[in-house]
Amino acid sequence: VVDQSEGASVEVPAGFDPGEFRLSGKVTGEPPFRGRLVHHGWKIAKCELPEWSGSQATSGVVAAAEVEV
Questions:
Q1: Distances from the Cα of 40 to the Cαs of 9, 36, 49, in angstroms?
Q2: CB neighbourhood size of 50 (10 A)
Q3: CB 66 within 8 A of CB 33
Q4: Distances (CA, A) of 16 to 46, 47, 50
Q5: Residue of 8, 15, 43, 65 with fewest CB within 10 Å of its CB?
Q6: Please, which residues bridge with residue 32 across strands?
Q7: Torsions phi, psi of 56, nearest 5?
Q8: Is the pTM of this model over 0.85?
Q9: In whole angstroms, how far apart are CA 57 and each of 16, 27, 39, 41, 52?
Q10: Residue 69 and residue 56: Cα distance in Å, rounded?
Q11: What is the pLDDT of residue 63?
Q12: What is the 3-state secondary structure (H, E, C) of the chain?
């Protein structure tokens, strides 16, 4: 999901999709948020599910990126 190494400083933009980013720590105020990348997240190249209930943008996300704020 995020093309940076775990431990890197990253910015989670305003309007981010919560299916792509999971925020932890002391999350206050409005985005954009800056924090340390705990997990870069996983996306798949192909997803075959009987019925998808998420957004089209997050259909390939296996695990959301985790950012400690």
A1: 11, 10, 23
A2: 4
A3: no
A4: 22, 22, 27
A5: 15
A6: none
A7: -60, -40
A8: no
A9: 11, 24, 19, 14, 12
A10: 27
A11: 87
A12: CCCCCCCCEEEECCCCCCCCEEEECCCCCCCCEEEEEEECCEECCCCCCCCCCCCHHHCCEEECEEEEC
| Ordered per-residue pLDDT tens for the chain, 69 residues | 999 999 999 999 999 999 999 999 999 999 999 999 999 999 888 877 677 788 888 888 888 899 898
Q: CB neighbours of 64 closer than 8 A, spacing ≥ 6? A: 1, 18, 19, 20, 21, 22, 41
Length of the chain as a residue count: 69
Amino acid symbol at 35: G
